[in-house]
Amino acid sequence: MKPSKRSLKVLFPFILTLITTGSTFAQEGNNNFPPPETPIVLSATRTEGKISIDGNLSEPDWDNAEVVSDFFRVEPAQRAGT
After folding, report:
1. Is the pLDDT of residue 50 over 90?
2. What is the pLDDT of residues 2-33, one digit of tens each?
3. How many domains in the chain?
4. Considering the domain boundaries, does residue 53 fall inside one?
5. Is the pTM of this model over 0.70?
6. Roughly how many angstroms between the first and final C-alpha of the chain, as a whole number?
7. How far apart are CA 33 and CA 75, in angstroms?
8. Within a domain: residue 73?
9. 21 found inside a domain
């Protein structure tokens, strides 16, 4: 049995509403880490020579680069699935 065009016109907005409200409710919980109280500021240094992206920090310009070490991993939902 094939659905009529009228029934499709009635069902389509209903199905679309279900899909969009379901994704809205899925994003409600906030299990992420809060942002830092003081924003992190990084500075970039212009290089004098050529830098090769090879994992080897042998170029002299690396000596002028600022060291940044306070990285941490943020997931879309912390402890998801536990």
Report:
1. yes
2. 767 777 677 777 787 877 775 555 555 556 66
3. 1
4. yes
5. no
6. 45
7. 9
8. no
9. yes
